[in-house]
Description:
Structural class of chain A: mainly beta
Strand order of the largest sheet of chain B: 1-9-8-3-4
Strand content of chain A: over 45%
Structural class of chain B: mainly beta
Distance between the termini of chain A: 37 Å
Largest sheet of chain A: 7 strands, mixed
Number of helices of chain A: 1
Number of helices of chain B: 0
Order of helices and strands of chain B: EEEEEEEEE
Oligomer: heterodimer
Largest interface: A-B, 32 and 26 residues
Shape of chain B: globular
Radius of gyration of chain A: 14 Å
Helix content of chain A: under 10%
Amino acid sequence: EPEVTQTPSHQVTQMGQEVILRCVPISNHLYFYWYRQILGQKVEFLVSFYNNEISEKSEIFDDQFSVERPDGSNFTLKIRSTKLEDSAMYFCASSESFGVGATYSNQPQHFGDGTRLSIL
Amino acid sequence: DAKTTQPNSMESNEEEPVHLPCNHSTISGTDYIHWYRQLPSQGPEYVIHGLTSNVNNRMASLAIAEDRKSSTLILHRATLRDAAVYYCILRDWNQGAQKLVFGQGTRLTINP
C-alpha cells in the first residue's frame, strides 16, 4: 500500500538554526498537510497546501515557518530560526482529492511516521 | 468546530470486543464522524467514518446513535496491535478537504 514517507526520522538542531523537514506524499494525492505533536500533547494542525498555495494555516504557523513543493514529489516544512518550543514530532499528511462535498471532504488523510525535531 | 468528548483511557483483553464511545452533542447536519488512531511512535491512521447509518470495514465498525449525538467505535476482536490512542473527529462535508482537529482521544490498553 502506498505510504507517506518523512525524512529524517530524528533531527537535532541548535536553537536559532534553520531546519528543513522533508515529506514525500502519496503520488496521486493533491492536498498536503503538516501537523505537529509536542510530547504528551494533542496533534495540532499547522498548515494545508493545495495547488502550490497555502489553503489554510493555524496561529502556530507564523513567519518563521514556510512550506514548499519544490518538485513533483517532495513537500517540505522549513523553520527559519528554531526555538526550544519547536521541539516536537512533525507529521506530514496527504489526501487524494480536493473539493466541497461528501466525496471530497471525507477523503482520509494519510500520515507519515513523523520527524522528531529536538532543539538544543 | 463541533466538539467531541471521549474517555481518557480504556482497557480491554485480547480477543475480546472493545466499544469506544464518543459524545458529540453539538454535531451539525453536515458533520461526518471520523475515527483515527495513533499507534505508539507512529502517525495517526484513518479507521472509519460515517454519517447516519452504521458502517463496517476491515478494521472496525461504527455505530451511530439515531440522534447522532453519540457514536461508538467497535473493534470486534482486539489484538495487542490495537493498543493505540483513538480519536473521534467531526468533519463538515461542506467545508472541503479541511484540517483534522484532534482532541486528547482515548488511550486503549489491551491486556494479553
